């Protein structure tokens, strides 16, 4: 699809396609990315994302739309943030146990992820629109990013997954020293402490999910563009094992994971790695005007050896196909893989209007009470697309084993 074709279909109208439904959400922005899905009261569904002219620019803000239960159209988008000197990215919507809705998001100057701050604000509903309150910096280390949902620990503590850019003095962020962690709040978000995942260099976008044995597993995007990684917790998220590779390739792009009612794990991602592709770009923000004259952070030491705490990030591997991967062994292996949508996946540019970007990326997945799935993802950087998979369609996918090459 060309950008103008996508734009013409950004109506929010839910269209049936066999056992699935799809919609392309409305947005006033020409670039839309990093969808986040969250259930609301009454079965309604919220989708938040960031939009503006180009990722990293200061006109990037958070938007959100609602699909009321039983409705056939997503609501017009509401703008929930507008910090004029920062790029506001990666929204996370969380409904606390007391019913209060919160929005968390990152905010950074330009492409400097190592200067990112994490903010939270109250969200209220006005019909089918979301409205935001004042933002508060929650006091996490400089260079902290978020992406995955908050989970509530057995003692009521909130657990917000993080990745930390670990800034290097005088050097520009490249992702070479990113690590995973959890921010923990025992007072409903008033204060936070940080628990680090051991030996997690390059493992980011930590997504914890419950396992059917009472433990937890977490899954990670990889800066090294090799494999989706996995770690475990046997104490409800208080401590975590070192991330280890699964059998699903990863392209240094986001993944979404959830636990189905029977304990099956469902992951939506782009199962392709650097070993399968020759596509490369310098960095995530190589199209932004060069206003930062610091040299790039390198993972090697003075002798050219990779530092123990560093990695070599790989950018530019195709972000397609978009696939649903299913695991019956707690996420150690994903034996069923189904292509949801495909394209060239080209992502050597973040530009959303010249047609060269064709990524299907940054998916978010939620199980539905009826046994189906809701999935939202980036469509060529131009729009956010929502797909609803019916219980029957999911059952058909689960009955089909992986085909070679998918």
TrEMBL record:
Residue intervals of the Sialidase domain: 43-375
Ranges of biased composition (kind: Polar residues): 239-252
Pfam families listed in its UniProt record: BNR_2
Chain segments carrying region Disordered: 227-252, 289-309
Gene3D superfamilies cross-referenced by the UniProt entry: 2.120.10.10
InterPro entries (alphabetical): Sialidase (IPR011040), Sialidase_sf (IPR036278)
SUPFAM superfamilies from the UniProt entry: Sialidases (SSF50939)
Compositionally biased residues, Basic and acidic residues: 227-238
The protein, known as: Sialidase domain-containing protein
């Amino acid at each position: 699809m060309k950008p103008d074709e996508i734009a013409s279909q950004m109506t929010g109208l839910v269209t049936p396609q066999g056992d699935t439904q799809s919609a392309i959400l409305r947005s006033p922005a020409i670039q839309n990315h990093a969808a986040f899905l969250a259930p609301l009261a009454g079965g309604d569904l919220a989708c938040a994302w960031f939009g503006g002219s180009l990722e990293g620019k200061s006109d990037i803000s958070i938007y959100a739309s609602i699909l009321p239960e039983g409705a056939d159209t997503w609501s017009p988008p509401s703008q929930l943030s507008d910090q004029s000197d920062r790029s506001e990215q990666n929204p996370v919507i969380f409904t606390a146990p007391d019913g209060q809705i919160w929005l968390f998001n990152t905010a950074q100057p330009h492409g400097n992820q190592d200067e990112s701050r994490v903010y939270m604000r109250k969200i209220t509903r006005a019909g089918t629109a979301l409205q935001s309150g004042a933002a508060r910096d929650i006091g996490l280390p400089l260079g902290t990013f978020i992406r995955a949902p908050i989970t509530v620990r057995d003692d009521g503590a909130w657990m917000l997954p993080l990745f930390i850019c670990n800034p290097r003095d005088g050097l520009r962020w490249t992702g070479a020293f990113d690590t995973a962690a959890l921010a923990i709040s025992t007072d409903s978000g008033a204060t936070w402490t940080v628990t680090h995942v051991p030996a997690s260099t390059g493992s980011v976008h930590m997504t914890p999910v419950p396992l059917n044995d009472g433990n937890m597993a977490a899954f990670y995007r990889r800066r090294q563009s090799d494999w989706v990684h996995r770690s475990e917790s046997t104490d409800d998220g208080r401590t975590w094992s070192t991330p280890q590779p699964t059998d699903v390739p990863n392209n240094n792009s986001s993944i979404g994971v959830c636990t189905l009612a029977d304990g099956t794990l469902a992951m939506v991602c782009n199962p392709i790695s650097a070993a399968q592709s020759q596509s490369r770009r310098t960095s995530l923000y190589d199209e932004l005007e060069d206003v930062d004259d610091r040299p790039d952070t390198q993972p090697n030491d003075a002798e050219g050896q990779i530092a123990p705490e560093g990695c070599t990030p790989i950018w530019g591997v195709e972000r397609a196909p978009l696939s649903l991967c299913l695991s019956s062994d707690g996420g150690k292996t994903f034996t069923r893989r189904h292509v949801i949508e495909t394209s060239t996946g080209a992502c050597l540019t973040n530009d959303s209007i010249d047609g060269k970007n064709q990524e299907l990326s940054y998916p978010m997945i939620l199980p539905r009470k009826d046994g189906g799935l809701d999935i939202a993802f980036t469509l060529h950087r131009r729009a956010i697309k929502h797909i609803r998979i019916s219980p029957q369609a999911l059952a058909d996918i689960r009955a089909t084993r992986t085909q070679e090459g998918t």
